[in-house]
Amino acid sequence: MRKISVLLVITMVFVSVFTSFASNEVKVTVDGKLIDFDVKPYIDTNGRTMIPVRFVSEKLGCEVDWDDINKVVTVNKGDTSIVLKIGESKATVNDEVMVFDTSAVIMSGRTMVPLRFVSEALGARVGWDGKTRTVSIVTVDMFYEPFTVEEQERLNQYEDNIGYENVIRTDMDGNPSSHYSTREEQLSTEAGIRTAHRVVETAKEYFSLYHAFDYRTVDKDEYIKKLGAYYSRENAGKDRYDELVGRQYIMIGDFKTDIYNVYVDHGQLFRIRGVAQYYIENDLDIRDNRKQKTWYEMDLEFAFYYDPDDKHYKYRKQISLSEPREMRR
Fold it and tell me: How much is the pLDDT for 141?
């Protein structure tokens, strides 16, 4: 009986340790590709994901130097240099000391460094999907225009369902649901990233057609054809063309966004948020108390759906997330 009890205790301890270790493991994707590690990433006692420094050199395209005497690792990429010392909760990034809440360590003979700190210092975006325990890294090369911290925080503060408060959503089986894919879920696969790129390109082209317009130089036939492709309604492109020509409308601008601001609603509605920056040169019907010859910016969301018959994204909705703000340029 005593032997059975001892064996049971040993078994319970082993299972407990194994379960704890397994629950501490995480998966990592870079630009949608799942990364295979010889030393698995883990979450340390400070709640930070730690990865072997070899990952930084092989997957993020950096040069890594190791000073064994001083226990210092140096990561270089382009104009960025990061220096971390084993056991210290600070690093030097381009001669600027930065403090973080964990430290580089040596485990199983490998140097482990904090994933988020190093990745973001190199210009990548890092997301976390708690349901699948997956860290998604999207490299800077996959973005269009980088947002400032202030801009991204402002976009993040808007409610998910703004502009859709009275819409009843259903899942693929017709059951009520309010699920959106998060940005981390959207960017966790190569297919998701490709879709996000197409949505970004769609939103930027639509903005340039619908809003950025010069009645003096626009090619009528080409404009009507391109804008019309975004609508199921016949003559939609011509109606917009006639309206803007009648207003003698001249506006330059761009929709600033990136793949990290794409949301998918049940794979049916593709929503994207960003910042419209524009200059109104002339408008006979100027609205919203705006002034001519002035730069403005405002936060917008566009929604599109994909038409498999036309093989083209169609415009569904534009939502003004903010009022226009005058820009200093």
Answer: 56
Residue 151, H or E segment: helix 149-156
| Both structure tokens of 36 | 């295979």
Q: Could you write out the DSSP letters of every residue in 193-255?
A: HHHHHHHHHHHHHHHHHHTSEETTT--HHHHHHHHHTT-SSTTHHHHHHHHHHHTT-EEEEEE
Nearest 5°: CA angle at 35, between 30 and 40?
A: 125
Return d(Cα 19, Cα 23) in angstroms, integer: 6
DSSP state of 133: T
DSSP string for residues in 236-250: HHHHHHHHHHHTT-E
Residues of the chain with pLDDT under 70: 1-24, 140-146, 161-188, 266-267, 329
Per-residue pLDDT tens over the stretch 145-183 = 567 778 888 988 887 766 665 544 444 444 544 444 555
In the block, residue with structure tokens 């210009």: 123
Q: Which residue type, as a one-letter code, is found at position 117? A: F
* Cβ pair 82, 75 in contact under 8 A: yes
Amino acid 40 reads K
Cβ contact 288:324 at 8 Å: yes
For residues 271 and 301, what is the distance between their CA atoms, to the nearest angstrom?
A: 7
Could you give the CA distance from residue 273 to residue 200 in angstroms, rounded to a whole number? 9
Q: How many helices (H) does the chain have, and how many strands (E)?
A: 8, 20
Going along 31-87, which residue ranges are E strands?
33-34, 42-43, 49-52, 63-67, 72-77, 80-85
The CATH architecture assigned to 24-126 reads 2-Layer Sandwich (3.30)
Angle at the Cα of 31 (from 267 to 273), degrees rounded to 5? 50
**What is the CB neighbour count within 10 angstroms for residue 135?**
24
Amino acid at 61: G
This model's pTM is above 0.90? no
SS (H, E, C) 96-122: EEEECCCCCEEECCEEEEEHHHHHHHC
Question: What ranges do the domains of the chain cover?
Answer: 24-126, 143-326
